[in-house]
Amino acid sequence: MRHRLVSFDALTTRELDAWHGFLAANSALDSPCYHPGFAASVHAGGRPVRVLVSEEDGVVRALLPVQLDGGLARPAGWPAADFQGPVLAPGTRFEPRALLGAGLRGYAFDHLPAGYGEFAPWVAHSRPSPFLDVSGGLDGYLGRVSRSGKDKMGEARRLTAKIEREHGPVRFTADSRDPAALDRVIELKRTQYAATGARDYFADPARADWLHRLLRTTDPAFGGLLCTVHIGPKLVAAHFGMRASHVLHWWFPVYDKEFARLSPGWILLREVIRAAPGLGLERIDLGRGEDDYKRRAMTGQVMVGEGLVAGGVRRALHGASRSAVAAVKASPLAPKLRAVARRLRS
Questions:
Q1: Which of 70, 125, 194, 223 is the most exposed place for a label (fewest CB within 10 A)?
Q2: 324-336 pLDDT, tens digit each
Q3: Beta 72-75 vs 50-56: how paired, if at all?
């Protein structure tokens, strides 16, 4: 098999057609993160995307979009790419060392689904990535979710009624195109990052611009989706994510802390599930993590791995670095360290 690294905007019609064909032939690749529209949106924002194109006897067999950090490749859209890995023709085996043969020092991944068996020797850690099967809308979902999830959906229904008695009508918009609402989502998300000590994803203004471009992408095959819950003029909960065909990727959920006692996040999720049939959605991917709401709401999960395809020394250094970070996070001093980091950043 021959491998070459090309700029995304240099892909030919033949290669893009192959990409779409591989997606159509493999339901495991139905996440928006695998759609060429995702790589295109990253590339259009000034973060150059390169694509490893693998061919056999002149026929395209695999494509892997990456961003380069020196000679190290990361998945296109990193660190917001929640599913990663090559897009393969049916029956194709991908040899990870091909990345090194293409002139790269390595390929770092952190959301690689377990189905990529050839990458198994390179995976250092795996974590669950929950999803919701929402085919059949709310009724179908309630027939599959755990008792804990049913209870939270029932609570959300009762709290919606309580809000309407105390504050006025609750208005849900399943597909908002309001850029001001997206600005408010980003504002609330940045407030959340500051409060928890998490790295501020939107400290780079280009990332907010990226979300706005996705919001303006309205192709049903791929684009952004903004769902909002208002009480009167006030936005109390919202989510911005990506959709590709029947799959919604749950990406940036937020809610106004003023209404925290009324569980606005659960109200929002219930409304999105109710709206799923009208939006053509059958699954909502919640992304990697074991948050309480994901554990309660999920109907299933896949495992995603983290690791590095590289030579022995570089791989060992990467593993040692990740182990050190994990040890710090697990330390009783972690909250104090995050507080110090926030003060230094400010």
A1: 70
A2: 344 344 445 555 5
A3: unpaired
